[in-house]
Amino acid sequence: MSLIDETGAGLDGLAQLRALMSSGRKPGILESLNFDFVEVDAGRAVFAGIPGDHAYNPIGTVHGGYAATLLDSACGCAVHSRLTAAQAYTTLELKVAYHKAITRDSGLLRAEGRVISIGRRAAFAEATLTDATGRLYASATSTLLVFER
User: Fold this and answer.
1) Which of these, 145, 62, 42, 63, lies nearest to 107 by C-alpha position?
2) Which of the residues in the chain have pLDDT under 70?
3) 10, 26, 118, 141: which has the fewest Cβ within 10 Å?
4) Under CATH, which number does the domain 3-148 receive?
């Protein structure tokens, strides 16, 4: 079931995301990686999670895909929050820079995404992944395709 089915047609992107958050429903990726959608405003979205053993790789740190998923979610939902009811999007490119190794001891991490610009066909967003003290673990830039449903 898609977000539009779950929240109802006719809502703009921000209203769709707010409806999802208030429903208490967690899409599968949030369940599998154990993180939450915690804030949304026009052009801004925040996800948060505590990395645990479920996200570890064989070399003894949290897999880079964990950070990339939080950052991609933050960039994507920041753009989603700016869409009309007739628009949708998909990620075309995500570039991630890893600044510091993530471990189970990193604590609560927040991925905050922001729209840099949005047009009729393309959107650009950026996100940072930080801990409770503001220490930067990873950052990303994203290019997204905007299209009519």
Assistant:
1) 62
2) 1-8
3) 10
4) 3.10.129.10
